[in-house]
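Reopening this ticket.

The earlier resolution said the output was attached, but the attachment link was broken on my side. Pasting everything inline this time so it's all in one place.
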Amino acid sequence: MPSREIKTNRLIRQFGIFKVPMIWYCRPKVIEHTDEKIEIKIALRRRTKNHFGSMYFGVLAVGADITGGFLAMEPIKESGRNITLIFKDFKADFLKRPEGDVHFTCHDGLAIRDLVKQASGSGVRHNYKLNIDATVPSLSKDVVARFELTLSLKDKT
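Inline output:
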C-alpha cells in the first residue's frame, strides 16, 4: 500500500493537471504528511526562478496555497460530505531571498480536522487562519517567508 506522501503527491499532480495547471507547472513534492503537519518542497529551477535567481513570488504563493489546501483535503474526503474549500484571504511576509529549494510547512492539521467537523452538516461557512512557513533547508534554518491564509469551508450537502 502506498505511503501517505505518495498518495498526496499523486493527488497534487492530478489536481494540477486537471484543475490548476500552475500547480503542475511548479512540480511540488510532498516531503512529509501527517495528521498534524504537511511539508511540501518546490525546487528552484529555471521555471520557478525570477530574474534575480531566487524563487519567484508567484511560485511561493502556489507553494503556500497547496500546503494549506492539501492539508485540508484528506479530512474533507474522510468526512464523506460535500465540503467546499476556498481561501478567503492571503497575507505574505517575504523575509529573505529564497535562493534554493523551498520547503513549505504547516502545522495546523489538527485544527483543520476540527474545522471540518464544525463545517460538516452546518450549512454555514467556517474559517480558520493557517500559518505556513517557507524555508530553504539547504542554506539555513531561517524562515524566508511567512504566509497567513484564511481557509474557508462550507458543507454544500
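Reporter confirms the inline version is readable. Strands lie at 29-33, 38-42, 83-94, 102-106, 126-135, 143-155. The first helix runs from residue 4 to 18.
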